[in-house]
């Protein structure tokens, strides 16, 4: 009897090994359209580049054409060569640089400058000379910004003004202002003329047509509460939102239908999507990066959750090499003659600003 049991166990493992071998063979012939299986996706922190410097930071942006990571640092924009991890340039002349967009000509960049709350500007810089060449007045407190490839226009989302300023890149002039029914938060484009704007105050996603420059419709994003990031899967017409109530939801970009497709970590920050491998990345301020893979239209499976650094909730993605660049710094407490609230508020320490490179 014991011999029979041993034989059955060995036979069972052989059968399992056979199926695993088949699965491995199938994966090796899959195309980029298929999401890779979980056992082949093992991400890790590859490098940490300590760049230092004073000031806060905004959302980084990766330029695949030049392998440059652009990072807004309050009064300047840092340019980091991702091949070496070193500074390759710097653009100065900002008051409150926050978010960056790049056109598709490879020549110009656009940065929202929050200034002092009394005025808002978009600064246009030459990517070759690293000089600001134009300052364009827009609405109050411009924050998010994107270049829309179909209309060839830059769309600026004014937080206080509840509007979108449309900039003609040929003239660097505002050619239209689109009123919005609330304060704009995260934004993204489907690359086909559709722009999607998250309005947390009213619990809706607004669809803006980039060509007609009009709000086409809006949809509720319930049951999501407090979305903090948004990304788009153009192929499957899905928006992804990571929410404060830990829901990961998908919204159809044609119908507005909402589906809960998974759960995220506490306090989610930005969301990025790798369309080549159908991977979704969600970062949070606690220093966690969740990696999800598309299982079907109704579910995304969490493949991994890796530790980065406290505060690393903003990121950029290099889809060609499947690399994620997160930014943060070491935090401490204020000293000196400050209020109790400020004393215990986490404060970035000088000289500790860091880029974290995550890859597989």
Question: What would a concise description of this structure say?
Answer:
With 360 residues, this protein is mostly beta strands. It is 9% helix and 52% strand.
Describe, in plain words, how this protein is organized in 3D.
Strand 21 and strand 22 form a beta hairpin. Helices cover 9% and strands 52% of the residues. The chain is mostly beta strands and 360 residues long. The model is unreliable at 1-38 (pLDDT under 50). It starts with a helix and ends with a strand. It has 2 helices and 29 strands. The longest helix has 27 residues, at 2-28. It has 2 domains: 56-190, Methylamine Dehydrogenase, Chain H (7 Propeller); 221-360, Methylamine Dehydrogenase, Chain H (7 Propeller). A 7-stranded antiparallel beta sheet has the order 2-3-4-5-6-7-8, with no helix packed on it. Strands 1-29-26-25 form a 4-stranded antiparallel beta sheet, with no helix packed on it.
- Radius of gyration from the alpha-carbon trace, in angstroms: 22 Å
Poorly predicted residue ranges: 1-38
Q: Strand content of the residues, in percent?
A: over 45%
What's the shape?
A: globular
Span between termini: 47 Å
Oligomer: single chain
Q: Structural class of the secondary structure composition?
A: mainly beta
The CATH superfamily name of the largest domain is YVTN repeat-like/Quinoprotein amine dehydrogenase
Number of helices: 2
Percent helix: under 10%
Which second-level CATH architecture of the largest domain applies? 7 Propeller
**What is the name of the CATH class of the largest domain?**
Mainly Beta
Task: Return the domain count.
Answer: 2
In the sheet with the most strands, the strands line up as: 2-3-4-5-6-7-8
Largest sheet features? 7 strands, antiparallel
